[in-house]
């Protein structure tokens, strides 16, 4: 019953957003997430790596 409800919501959402725009939004979020992670790793390298170098 739950699965049918989730699938129904998914199809309702697909009527509002075309699948292409949905994928574009997901890709944009993924890219920004990866950039933030990369910036954090550049600014703050892992403490484990620093401890190994000591």
Q: How would you characterize this protein structure?
A:
This protein has 54 residues and is mostly helical. The protein has a domain of 37 residues. The chain is 87% helix and 0% strand. It is built from three helices and no strands. The chain is elongated. It starts with a helix and ends with a helix.
Helix- and strand-based class?
A: mainly alpha
Helix and strand pattern: HHH
Oligomer: single chain
Number of DSSP helices?
3
CA-based shape: elongated
Beta-strand fraction estimate: under 5%
Features:
54 residues, mainly alpha, 0% strand, elongated
What order do the helices and strands come in, and which of them pair?
Layout: H1 2-16, H2 19-43, H3 47-53
Write a short abstract of this structure.
The chain is mainly alpha-helical and 54 residues long.
């Amino acid at each position: 019953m739950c699965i049918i409800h989730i699938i129904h919501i998914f199809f309702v959402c697909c009527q509002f957003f075309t699948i292409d725009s949905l994928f574009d939004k997901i890709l944009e979020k993924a890219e920004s997430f990866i950039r933030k992670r990369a910036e954090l790793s550049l600014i703050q390298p892992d403490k484990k790596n620093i401890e190994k170098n000591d």
